[in-house]
Every structure is written in structure tokens, then in C-alpha cells.
Write a structure and sequence with these properties.
Blueprint (H helix, E strand, L loop, with lengths): L2 H25 L3 H8 L4 H9 L3 H9 L3 H10 L2 H10 L17 E2 L5 H11 L7 E5 L5 E6 H6 L6 H4 L1 E2 L10 H8 L6 E5 L5 E6 H19 L12 H28 L1 H6 L2 H29 L8 H33 L5 H32 L4 H28 L1
Parallel strand pairs: 1-2
Antiparallel strand pairs: 2-3, 3-4, 5-6
């Protein structure tokens, strides 16, 4: 054996061991933190490390490096990986094109099973091969061949004799949500990705597709309350502080609007002290109604369940639910107010109970309306609906609830 070849093999094993040791810590971090973690390592090591990751995560980490360093890392990668990274950069982050990996087992239709098998022996040392892809001279996808068909076929048979013609494929511009809907009833282990002309430009594994969607859904809850997508449990506290503090300051400023409403009705509160006790009750119910509606609307938008033209139906449904829930909880709250006001020997206990009932009903109705409409409006404006929906909804429900509750009390009592 060539001594230099043996040393190279030992070095490869050492590198592989270091990659495996670093991998768990790397995937637990946000892309920006992962890039900082890899920054001290040589370019070739970083390229091998990224090639071991989920393609979507690898692309996101690669994009966090400065341009000059990113070019060096891409140059150190193998030609198929480098070509795929360059191709993936052209597509949005939440699209299929952004998370493709190279299609290696690609052959012409006249290739025999014996010829393809010889070539596959080289590919399987570098990647897990599930399907053989059959393309024409212009690399347009003609069909796929499963490994089972390769095993059962005669060596002299051509691939176009045993392939599945015109197979299902994804397109690189397809959003992640649309791809999830398209693959929901198929459950293939691998999906070819073709451009508008039918040219095979990559593949995406079913497992990676569902992992990406799971991550997207898990990030949504944090985004609603001002937690950046980049923040993880391992994020240093100064960076977490920077991520969260501006959102909290904005929320505080908007909270002053609710305080201004209280100041405006200060005379009513001073005259009817029982109102102050029930302010958080009514506000809490209105806010909870709005947040429930918001969560359902965002989930439907993320999963692609909200079809074009279905926006009005969503708003009407949630408005009715807000009214119904508000009326029923309003009865309970009104009974509570009547008991409390009677215990306090208030001469207007029944009027206060009616104020609570109407305020609860109207506030929950408003929460339903805005919980459904705010994410729709933000999406129309080109903003991620999850990014600002919560803070806008909280402000609207707080201000309107106080205005309705205290305004009704001033008018009726």
C-alpha cells in the first residue's frame, strides 16, 4: 500500500471523527452562531462539515459567512456540492430550491443495468442512493428507477425499459408549505427537483422536507412574542438581550395607549371602584380570544390551509366565535360582578353586571375580528404575519376593551 495513501486515509478518519464530535453542538445553534463556531476552522474542514448537515441548514450557515470567506469555503467543497450550493443561493430561504442536494445517480435512457451498477459502486461510497434518475441529452428528467427494479432486472436491460416514466417532481421556486401539501399523500423517500423546462437540478429527501417544516412551525410561536428566529437555548445572554429588548420597549410604548384610556376614564373608576377589580378580567378574556384566533389563522396560513378567497369566511367564523364565547363568558362574569358589587353594597350592582356582560361580549368579538384579520393584513403588506401580529393584536384588544368597558360604565351607570 502506498504510504501517502495510508496517511491520507488516516487523516480522513480523523477529520470524520472531529466532524461527528462537533455535529450535535452545531445543529443545536442558530445559523449565525453556527457560522461563528466554524469560523476558526480551515476552509476545507468547514466545507466537509456543511456537507454533513441538512442542506437547508448548510445553506443558511454558509450565507452567514462574509462573502470572501464564503467563496473560499465553496471552492474547497467537492464540485457537485459546490455547484449545488451556488444553484441554491438563487432561491428564497423557505423554498425547495434553497434546500436541494445534488442528484448523483443520473444516467441516460440507453444505459444498461450492468453499466449503471458499475457506476453506482462509486456513488454509494459518497452518498445514500435511493433512486436512479434517467435524463435525456438536455438533462430533462424522463423517469426514475428504484433499487428494487435494478436488482430484479437483467444486466442487459436498458434503464428506459424499467424506469417509471414522467415521475412526480417538485419545482425549485415552490414554497416549503406548498411542497408539504404536494407530498402529503405520497411519502416518497426522495423527490427530484426540476426547473420549469423539466431539467433535473437536484433532489430533496422527504425526511429533510418534514424536518424543515417542523422547524418552521416551532419558530412561529417565538416570533409572535418577539423572540428572534436566530435565538436558541445556547445563545449568549447579551445577544438574547439585544434580540428581545427592542420588542419589549415597543410593547411598553404601545401599552401607554391603554394607560391613556384609563386616565381618560379616571373619574368613572374613582366613582365606581368595583370596575378596577374587573378590568384585568375583561382584558384577559379579550386578549385570550384574540390570541386563540391568531394562532389558528397563523397555523392555517403556514400549512397552506387558507385558500385564496377564504379570508372573508375566516373573519366571519372567528367573529361569530368571538361573539358566542364572549356572551357565554360574559354571563359568568356578570354574575361575578353582581355578587361582588352586592357584597360591596353598591346601589347599582345590576347595572355594573350588565356593563360587564356587554363589555365582555363586545371585547371578545373584537378580539376575534382582529385576531383573524391582522395576520391577513400583514401578509398583504408583504410582512411575515407572525413577526408583529401579537404586539399589534395585544395593543388593539387592550385599548378597545378598556374603551368599551369604561365607556359603557360611564354611559349606563
Amino acid at each position: 500500500m502506498n504510504p501517502s495513501g495510508q496517511n491520507e486515509e488516516i487523516m480522513d478518519d480523523a477529520t470524520r471523527g472531529e466532524i461527528n464530535a462537533l455535529l450535535p453542538a452545531l445543529v443545536a445553534r442558530a445559523p449565525g452562531e453556527a457560522a461563528s463556531m466554524l469560523d476558526p476552522y480551515p476552509d476545507d474542514f468547514v466545507a466537509q462539515m456543511l456537507a454533513s448537515l441538512n442542506p437547508a441548514l448548510a445553506q443558511s450557515v454558509l450565507e452567514r459567512f462574509p462573502s470572501a470567506r464564503r467563496q473560499k469555503i465553496m471552492a474547497a467543497a467537492s464540485p457537485p456540492i459546490r455547484q449545488q450550493w451556488i444553484r441554491n443561493e438563487a432561491y428564497p430561504e423557505n423554498s425547495i430550491g434553497h434546500m436541494m442536494e445534488p442528484a448523483l445517480a443520473v444516467f441516460g435512457p440507453a444505459t444498461t443495468v450492468a453499466e449503471a451498477t458499475r457506476e453506482l459502486r462509486h456513488f454509494v461510497t459518497r452518498a445514500f442512493i435511493t433512486y436512479v434518475f434517467v435524463v435525456d441529452d438536455e438533462e430533462r428528467l424522463l423517469g426514475v428507477v428504484a433499487m428494487r427494479e435494478m436488482l430484479l432486472a437483467r444486466p442487459e436491460q436498458r434503464l428506459d425499459e424499467i424506469m417509471i416514466p414522467e415521475p412526480f417532481h417538485l419545482t425549485p421556486t415552490m414554497p416549503l408549505v406548498e411542497a408539504m401539501k404536494a407530498t402529503m399523500v405520497r411519502h416518497y423517500p426522495v423527490y427530484p427537483v426540476c426547473n420549469a423546462g423539466g431539467k433535473l437540478i437536484g433532489l430533496i429527501r422527504g425526511q429533510m422536507l418534514f424536518e424543515a417544516e417542523t422547524v418552521e412551525l416551532s419558530l412561529q410561536a417565538g416570533t409572535m412574542v418577539g423572540v428572534e428566529r436566530e435565538e436558541r437555548l445556547t445563545t449568549p445572554w447579551p445577544k438574547s438581550f439585544r434580540f428581545r429588548h427592542l420588542w419589549l420597549q415597543s410593547n411598553l410604548i404601545l401599552g401607554f395607549l391603554a394607560a391613556a384610556v384609563v386616565v381618560y376614564f379616571q373619574g368613572t373608576i374613582d366613582r365606581l371602584l368595583a370596575l378596577a377589580v374587573f378590568v384585568p378580567v375583561v382584558m384577559g378574556q379579550s386578549s385570550n380570544t384574540g390570541v386563540q384566533t391568531l394562532a389558528v389563522a397563523l397555523r392555517g396560513m403556514t400549512l397552506g390551509e387558507l385558500k385564496a378567497g377564504g379570508e372573508l369566511g375566516l373573519i366571519l367564523k372567528e367573529t361569530f366565535l368571538g361573539f358566542l364565547n364572549g356572551a357565554l363568558t360574559g354571563v359568568s362574569a356578570a354574575a361575578g360582578m353582581y355578587i361582588f358589587a352586592t357584597f360591596q353594597r353598591s346601589p347599582v350592582a345590576w347595572k355594573l353586571s350588565m356593563v360587564v356582560f356587554f363589555a365582555m361580549t363586545l371585547s371578545c368579538l373584537i378580539g376575534g375580528v382582529f385576531g383573524a384579520s391582522i395576520p391577513l393584513i400583514l401578509r398583504k403588506l408583504g410582512t411575515d404575519p407572525a413577526n408583529a401580529s401579537s404586539i399589534v393584536l395585544t395593543t388593539i384588544t387592550d385599548v378597545t376593551t378598556l374603551a368599551v368597558f369604561l365607556g359603557l360604565a360611564t354611559w349606563l351607570v
